[in-house]
Amino acid sequence: MKVTVLGSGTSTGVPRLGGENGGADWGLCDPDEPRNRRTRVSILLESDAGARILVDTSTDLRAQLLANDIHRIDAVFWTHDHADHCHGIDDLRPLRYGRAGPIPGYADSETVRRLRQRFGYVFAGQHGYPTLISLENLDTLRLCEGFRIGHTQMPHGGMDSTGFLFDAAGKSVGYATDFNQITRGMIDLFYGCDLLIVDCLRREPHPTHAHLAMSLELAEVCRVGTAVLTHLDKSMDYATLSASVPANVQVAYDGLVLTP
Prior knowledge:
This protein is α/β, with parallel strands linked by helices. The chain has 8 helices and 14 strands. It has helices spanning about 60-65, 85, 95, 110-120, 120-125, 185-190, 210-220, 240, and strands at about 1-5, 40-45, 50-55, 75, 105, 135, 145, 145-155, 160-170, 170-175, 195-200, 225-230, 250, 255-260. The strands form 2 sheets. A 7-stranded mixed beta sheet has the order 6-5-4-3-2-1-14. The chain has a 7-stranded mixed beta sheet with strand order 7-8-9-10-11-12-13. A hairpin with a 5-residue loop joins strand 2 (about 40-45) and strand 3 (about 50-55). The radius of gyration is 18 Å and the shape is globular. It starts with a strand and ends with a strand.
């Protein structure tokens, strides 16, 4: 199994718009370090058989797919419906071309409802255009494209985000982005996984996201093989952060390829 980090940044990306004198706002990030240039979060999983699962359709999806030479996916999962995680959905249109049917899509029931409300044409077709994605509730889903699927709901401020566990070929990858509390369900799902890609917005506590201490706590409590910090804001300089984390923790960057 292979995992590509398509995007590793927070909702505004890094650098952020609106810096001093109208320039780019890099915060504490070194602008000369390419790994500090972050688009909005998304990952792609690929099995040994070549099946590809996309998690989230980030605002920067088209650029991410082109940058990583990805021109086909077999299924898409959503963690929740916040703009940075779903507003790139229309970029899937060209990936529907040549398919016999829509791309399978999955999310929890509330995210399904919200996505259907916001992007009705994607899931029902419109004006002669075909349905792009067949969206289903993931509650009863156990297998997808050769991956075993586990999931749990995670507190994300006033709503929930879905955490996923993908299992294939004896390896497991957890994806836990956009949470602000550690729950029993999260520990049970991610315990002992080979690779955990985990929310880590900044060092200071945040009302809707994990901060560094919480991210490291989840990785330690779950005894994961490797933790990879993602959803990073402009205060999280790649080199500085990399030098301060334990040996089994990596800092994500756009285009990072991981093999659990």
